[in-house]
Structure formats: C-alpha cells, structure tokens
Amino acid sequence: MAQRRAEYGANRLEEAPPTTAWALLLHQFHSPLIYILLVAAAVTVAIGEYIDAAVIAAVLAINAAIGFFQEQRAEQSVRALMRLVSPKAHVSRGGQEAEIDSAELVPGDVVLLESGARVPADLRLFRCNDLAIDESLLTGESLPVRKSEVAVPEETAVADRLSMTHAGSIVTAGRGRGWVVAIGRNTELGSIAQSMRSAEIVATPMQERMRRFAQVVAAVVIAASALAIAVGLLHGLRLSELFLVAVTLAVSAIPEGLPVVVTITLAIGVRRMAGRNAVIRRLPAVETLGSTTVVGSDKTGTLTENRMTVMEAVTPVGGVTLHDGFESPPLSEPLRSLALAGVLANEADIAPGQGDQEKVRGDPTEGALLVAARRLGLDFRAERTAHESLYEIPFEPERAYSASVRAKDARRWIFVKGAPERILDMCVNAAGEGRGTLPLDPLEVQRHGSVLAGRGLRLLAFARRELEPEEDAARTRLAGLTFLGLTGMMDPPREGVRESITACRDAGIRVLMITGDHAQTARAIGRDLGLGDGADPVVMTGAEFALLDDAARERAAAETQVFARVAPEQKLAVVHALQRRGEVVAVTGDGVNDAPAIRAADIGVAMGRSGTDVAREAADMVLTDDNFVSIVAAVEEGRITFDNLRKVTFFLISTGAAEIVTILTALALDWPLPFLPAQILWLNLVTNGVQDVALAFEPGDPDVLKHAPRSRSEGIVSRLLWERTLVAGFTMAAGTLCVFHWELGEAGSVARAQTVALTTMVLFQVFHVGNSRSEHQSVFTRSPFSNRFLLLATVAALSVHVAALFLVPIQLVLRVEAIAEPATWLRMIAVASTILLTMELHKWLRRP
What is the DSSP letter of 560? Predict the structure, then answer.
C-alpha cells in the first residue's frame, strides 16, 4: 500500500499558487494608455514640472486602486475543485471495512458506495445493487444514471460509462462497490482541472479596443510633438523652448482622465447589473456582455428548472396535462389509480414544509411522481400508511421495472411501474371507469407513447393486479395485470426563457444549447424554447463534432442550434470554433463540466444558487437568480455601459483635439502659447474630469437592444465620432484662438490672454458635454434633468473654474488672472455656444 501511495501520490488535485497582491496590483498598470501616462509623468519630472507630475501620478494611483479592489478576488477555479473531493472514503482492505481520508486512496483500493455519498475517485464497478449516480456535475445529464457491472469499451464517452463512476459525482440511490482506477489529477475531475489551467484567457473586446485606441493616442502624441518641433525650428525657437511646447502638446493629446473614467463607468455598470441579478467579478466583462454575439447555454439548471416534473398523464379513458402549482384537475377513478400506483411503487420521499420546491430524497423521477400525485389532490403519505408494504422489487436496468406488494382492508395488490414496452407485456386489460376494465389496445398505447416521446418526455407505464388469497407475496407472478396508463416527464424550461431567447435574437445575439443530455431530450427542449426559430433546431452530438476538422467545426458552430451529449473538452472546442469565426462568446453553466468553457469564453456566466464553486470561480459574471432571463437584462446594461464609454471618450478626445489644434496653430502663427501645461491639466482633470465622470451615469437609449452587437474590429470611437471629433476640435480651437488674439491685442498681456483662452475652453466644454450625451439625438431633445448628476457636475465644474480665477493660491499655480468684466464674459459665452450649432448641423447632415 505504501509503495502504491509513493508511486501514485495523494488523491488530491494540484493547487495552483494564489495570485499575490503585488502581481494583482502590477496588473492594473498593464495597459498601453497607462504606459503613455507613465511616460508623461516621467517627462514632466525631467523638466521640473513637479505639480503636473504629481497630478498624473494621482490619476494612476486612483485608477489602480479602483481596479485592484474590484478584481481582488483572484482566480481560484482549481482550488474550488478541491472541495468536490470527498474528505472520507469507505473502503475494504484486507477483508476489513474502514473509513479513511480520501487523500489516502490508491489505485486498486475497493471503495464501498451508498446513497448520499460523494464518489472519492474514479471507480470501475464490480457490484451494483440498484445503484444510481448523479453525474450532472460532470456530464450535464439531468437524470441519475443507473449503473451496472457490465463492461463498456474504453473509448465510451463519460456519460455512457455505465460500469464506471467518477470522482465528484453523488450516489442518489442503492449501493455498490468498485475498484479505484484513477486518483487525483488522473481522474476525469483532474482532467477538467488541467483544462481550466491550460485554457487561454482571451482579451476582451474592451481591452482590444483600448489597446488600439492607445496606439492612436501614442501616434498623435508623437506626430503633434514632431510637428511642433519642426514648426518651432522654422521660426528660430530654441530646442529648450520647443521641449516645453512638446510636453504641453503631449499633455493635451493624452486623455489623462480616461483610465479613471473608464474604470468608474465600468463600476457603474457593475452596480446597475447587480440590481438586475447579475454580479460582475471582473470589470471588463461589463462591456463584453454588451458586445456578445453568441450565447452558448447549458440546459440543465440554466434553460430548465433542474427538477423532473410530470407534464402529461394518459389513462385508458383519457389524458390530462399537469401544470406547475397546486391546481387540481378533476380526479377521475382511472387517474386516481394511476397516481396511486406512482405513489406506492416508489421509494422516494419529500422533505415537508418547504413549499413546492422541496428536497426530494431518492430518485428524482420517483420524486416527480410524488409531486404530481399531490398536485392531483392525492395525499401520498396517507396512502402509503393505509397500504401496508409486504414486498418490494427494486428497479434494475436489466428488468426495467419496479414493483410493490401492498395490503389494505384484507386485500392485497401488486403495483408495477417501468418501461412501457415491458409493462405492456405483463398486461391483459386496461382500467376503465369505476372499477371496471376495458380491452387493452397496445397499438393505441404505443401511439400515445410516441407522441409524448416525440416531445422529449421520459415515459413510465403503470399497472396493477389484485393477488389471490393463496398467492405468496414474495413469489407473485407479474402477469395478468391491468394497464393503468402512462406518464410523461421532463425537466421543464424556465419561465420567461423562451421570451428571453426571442429578445436575444432581436438584439442580434444567437443562442445555442450546449448540453450533456441526450440528443432527443435536447431537441425537444430546444424546440419548446424556439431555438429553431419556428422549426426543429439543428442538433449535433459532441462525438460527431469531435470528428470534424477545424474548418468543418466552424461551419457546424454557425449552423447548429443544439449540441447534445457534449463532454467538457468538446464544449471547449465549440467555444474555440465560435471564437475563430470572430464571435464574442458568452457561455453559461453551473457544473464542473461547464467550467473549462466558461473560463475560455469571452465572458463566462455561472449560476449563483445551484452552480458549483468551480463554475462560479471560473466565471466573469454570476447570476444570483440562476435565471437565463437575467442575461438579457445584463446585455442591455452592458450595451448602455459601452455607449456611455463611447460618449465619455468622445468628449475627452474632442476637447483634447481642440487643445492640440489651438497650440499648433498658435505655434505656426508665431503667437505665444495659448495654454501652459498646468492649465492643460486643469482642463483635462478638473473641469473636464468632473463632467466626463457624470456622463457615465447617462441613462440608456430605449432601443438599445434593437441594434446588432458591435464588431470586435469596431473601435471604442466610431468613424462617425472620429469625424465629429475633428469638426468639434477645429470649432473649439478657432473660437479659442479668436478670443486669445482679441485679448492679446486689447490687453497686451500674455497671462490675461491665456486666462481668457482657458476660460473660453472651459465654456466650450460646458456646452459640448450636452452634445456628447447622444451620438444621433439633438441636445435639445434630451432633458437636462434626465441625468441630474451631469447637470450638477457641469454647474460644479464651471463654478470651480470661476472660483479658481479669484483665489490667489490657485492663480499662482495656474498662472491666471481674475476676469471681472461682463463684456468679456458675454464674448466668451457667445463664442463657446457656437459648438452647439456646429454639432447640431453635423448630426443633421450625418443622421442615420
């Protein structure tokens, strides 16, 4: 035993070292835009502009702090898997039974399984006594799997290995014994853990857009600085003077407040989504969800309720459809007999006192029969008490039925339930009205069964017979029975999911079902949910998908609506095929089998209530209500967040463009600089900074879900807004240069002219922030009170600037003068208001 333990190691999963706080903090600076700010800070220190450097450093610190605390919960996916390994194992060693730590298991050990136990390792079963295993954690199949000792081929998929049971699964019924064949990282659970470690985490659309945007900013900084130096040299300026001009231009070009505002905007989106049952674990996921083009959803527990429910009951004299709730259809005698058989040939129970969502003890299928009987008005506990149990025949896959001999009022009955074809072979007639019987029509029963099975329902048939007085209960013959009817059950779709899928389709988002369940069941659920858009959905199994090459996989991913019987590695392959097509993929799930795909997706979505720790830790977003419906709400908030990021960015870069054009034009005309570096930072971080943060609170457009998702290749600023940036920049630059030149000629003071130019630019921002509230709508159609924070921020920004003109300490830092003349203020306001007319004209000319 010691030799095997030394050879194979402990039965535990390898745990990845946790991310250190320092590594997490350094990660906050891993952005091209941040690199530019770091260079700007270094340059300002080098030229002795320590106030400017301190301001930039404060910006970097605030951004890092917000990102650090938002993402402090490091990835712990593999450590969460550890909690799925049972701490104890019941083994048989040397003919003696004992309970040991599961970490001490080695291949060759014999493990004893009983109802309620968690399987501690991968086992090859050699003895099964009505053994049923819940493997949904690994396979996604909603029903427990009945196990047997019969060997299966080695290449059999995990979900079909009836002679195997795997670590992390749960025994729902019966007993069994098996040899340990794999422990730790060699188990199926360990394979999933390895997949999660090796899964590549793709850059989010937001990260890609910010990277491209930072490259544009860097190019503008370099080009503007080079142009300024070239123009300055032509005018005979010294290099030391031109260096200050270049720094001023760099400070103008860099939107210093953008990293902070982006982080704040995403954080606002996080808060909004939390109010709609979606908890975001990583900030960029907010915007990513708004860009999603495909949602690959797990079935069990996500699209469906993860509880077996009797949907149809058919007796020889008619049928009834059962609905959730406690309404009771008229309980005819044939229907009562059917429900009674389902109660008495049944070993399950339901924990009392918890409403209609009780915890089923035993097989979920048998639990569903108890719930259905109660909905029909039958007190199953009272009936079990009234019908004394004399003999039980448990369900075995080989016999395909179970039976119970019961006694009541000196009469004995045998009640049988099982596969329809098996039960029909035992029956000679069918139950009629009252106590009478009808001729049995097997073809009619098969027709009803085909209809129910075609809708994806799992069928059970029921029969009974009264025993003769001399008949031995333990040796009763299973023949001459009276057929009572059929039930069809399924794990039903969640309420509102079909409507949510339609809403996704309207928003340009395709919804796929990716499940470990059988193809027929998945097809029926997909049809009920409308995945086929009016027709049966196209279904492909994981085994079929695995045989395709990469090109064929991409075609299949585009044409298939339902992937069934999918193993974890196959679900991961589907995600990769979609991503190679350029799709932005969201993956939802709740089990261990979903975790690798959740981690590899552009945005992973886990269930908060029923989901496993593994799925939640791998996810970017957790749904607190386990409801697919909440995804649509989260998509809406994600799109609003992106729109607000676009508005903020446009506002910042258009005012930055105005500053650059103003400085370059003044340099070309051989004028003094209209702004100093400290004044530029004042514009960008104080007056501008208050308003751009407030833009992040802008309410969304009502038709935000009517538009198609944005392409990955589309930048954070659209072509239309780049065009508008130039128009706005030249408009504000022209107005600022006019008042600067006027004041310079009138007063003869450069400081006075710079103060007027700076204040005019502040006023331009006050008007222009209203233009930035919508890409297409007129500023005059949006109430200023619909975003009260922006209204207050605009008033505050202007008030702060006016106060700064009259406060001596700030005058010294900014090198500005007080402006007290009303005529000057009227002139500046008149010039600044021209930005409204220019932007309205551009919106009208470029209306969609």
Answer: -
Q: What is the pTM of this model?
A: 0.70
Compute φ and ψ for 260, nearest 5 degrees. Answer: -65, -45
Per-residue confidence at 705, pLDDT binned at 50, 70, 90?
Answer: confident
Q: How far apart are CA 39 and CA 35, in angstroms?
A: 6
Q: Are strands 437-439 and 401-408 parallel, antiparallel or unpaired?
A: unpaired
CB atoms within 10 A of CB 70: 17
Distance CA 512, CA 566 (A): 13
Residue type present at position 837: L
Query: What are the distances in angstroms from CA 832 to CA 109, 225, 828, 841?
Result: 83, 27, 6, 16
DSSP state of 612: -
Q: What percent of the chain has pLDDT over 90?
A: 37
- For the chain, the maximum distance between any two Cα atoms, rounded to a whole number of angstroms, is 125
- The tokens for 508 are 């340009």
Between CA 353 and CA 81 the distance in angstroms is: 33
Specify whether the CB–CB gap between 205 and 602 falls below 8 A.
Answer: yes
Phi, psi of 548 (to 5 degrees): -85, 155
**Over 80: is that where the pLDDT of 150 sits?**
yes
Distance CA 135, CA 9 (A): 25
Model confidence pLDDT, tens digit, residues 554-592: 999 999 999 998 888 899 999 999 999 999 999 988 777
Block residue for tokens 């004299």: 317
Picking from 668, 297, 276, the residue whose alpha carbon sits closest to that of residue 498 is 297
Give the tens place of pLDDT for each residue, 196-221: 655 555 566 666 777 788 778 778 87
User: What contacts 146, CB < 8 A, 6 or more positions away?
Assistant: 130, 131, 132, 162, 395, 396, 397
Q: Give, as one character, the DSSP assignment of residue 85.
A: S
**Residue with tokens 């029509």, as numbered in its chain:** 441
Cα 357 to Cα 362, 373, 376, 379: the distances in Å are: 15, 15, 17, 17
Report how far Cα 104 is from the mean position of its chain's Cα atoms: 37
Buried b (16+ CB within 10 A) or exposed e, 472-493: eeeebebeebbbbbbbbbbbbb
Q: Is the dihedral of CA 387, 390, 391, 394 positive or negative?
A: positive
Q: Is 298 a catalytic residue?
A: yes
* 142 pLDDT more than 70: no
CB atoms within 10 A of CB 582: 11
pLDDT in tens, 612-623: 666 777 788 888
Catalytic residue among 122, 130, 298, 620: 298
Cα separation of 305 and 493, whole Å? Answer: 6
The per-residue DSSP string of 773-797 comes to: T-SSS-GGGS-GGGGHHHHHHHHHH
How sure is the predictor about 744, in pLDDT bands with cuts at 50, 70 and 90? very high
The DSSP element (H or E) to which 253 belongs, if any, is helix 239-253
Token pair for 40: 């700007």
Helix then strand count (H, E) for the chain reads 32, 26
**592 phi, psi to nearest 5 deg:** -60, -35
CA–CA separation, 281 vs 611, rounded Å? 15
Q: Which residues pair with 278 in a beta bridge?
A: 623
The structure tokens listed for 100 are 């040991």
